Amino acid sequence: MIESKMIDRNLAYEITNGNEELFKEMMELFIQISPDQLKEIKQAFRTEDNEALGAAAHDIKSSASSLGAMVLYESVFKLEQSAKLNLEMAQISPMIKDVEEKIRQTIAFYRDGHFSFDPESL
Fold first, then answer.
1. How many angstroms from the chain centroid is the CA of residue 74?
2. Residues ≥6 apart with Cβ < 8 Å to 99
3. Side-chain half-sphere of 111: how many Cα atoms within 13 Å?
4. Residue at 53 is within a domain
5. What is the DSSP letter of 74?
6. Mapping DSSP to helix (H, G, I), strand (E, B) and coil, where does residue 115 land?
7. What is the tally of structural domains in the chain?
8. Do residues 38 and 100 lie in contact, with contact meaning Cβ atoms separated by under 8 Å?
9. pLDDT digits over 20-67, tens only?
10. Residue 115: how many CB atoms within 10 A of its CB?
11. Rounded to an integer, what distance in angstroms lies between the CA atom of residue 68 and that of residue 62?
C-alpha cells in the first residue's frame, strides 16, 4: 500500500519555487538513477562494506531530500546511520528492503498521478 503522502507537496513546491516542470524533470531523473543507486547499496551489502553502503545510502537520501520525498528520506537516513554505526548485516538487511520498497512507492505515487502542484492540494 502506498502511503498517502510519499512526496511532501509543500516542500517540493518550495524546493522548485513552484516550477512543476522542473519537479517532473527531477523526478524523471530520480526514476532513471534510483535503480543504479539501489544496486550500489546491494553490492555494498553483499561485500559487507559499511563505508560504501553509507555513501550509497547518502546519495539516495540526497535525491529524496531534493524531491521532498520525506518518507523515503527517513527510511534511507536510518540505513545510512546504521551503516555508519557498523551494525550487523542481519540488522541492515530489512532496512535495505524497506528503502527499496519506499523507492518503489515514491515512484508509484508520482506516476499514478497522486502528486501535483494544484493549489487545492497544497
1. 8
2. 38, 41, 57, 60, 72, 75, 76, 79
3. 10
4. yes
5. H
6. coil
7. 1
8. yes
9. 999 999 999 999 999 999 999 999 999 999 999 999 999 999 999 999
10. 24
11. 10
Evaluate whether residue 39 is within a structural domain: yes
Q: What's the CATH number where 59 sits?
A: 1.20.120.160
Question: Is 67 within the bounds of a domain?
Answer: yes
Instruction: Please tell me the pTM assigned to this model.
Output: 0.90
Q: Which three cell numbers stand for residue 61?
A: 537520501
Assign 3-class secondary structure to 61-101: HHHHHHHCCHHHHHHHHHHHHHHHCCCCHHHHHHHHHHHHH
Residue written as cell 510519499? 6
Cα 19 to Cα 26: distance, rounded to the nearest angstrom:
11
Containing domain of residue 35, as a range? 9-111
**Cα 49–96–30 angle (5° rounding)?**
100
72 domain residue, yes or no: yes
60: nearest Cα among 84, 35, 43, 83: 35
Compute the radius of gyration of the chain from its Cα atoms: 15
Residues 3 and 73 sit within 8 Å (Cβ to Cβ): no
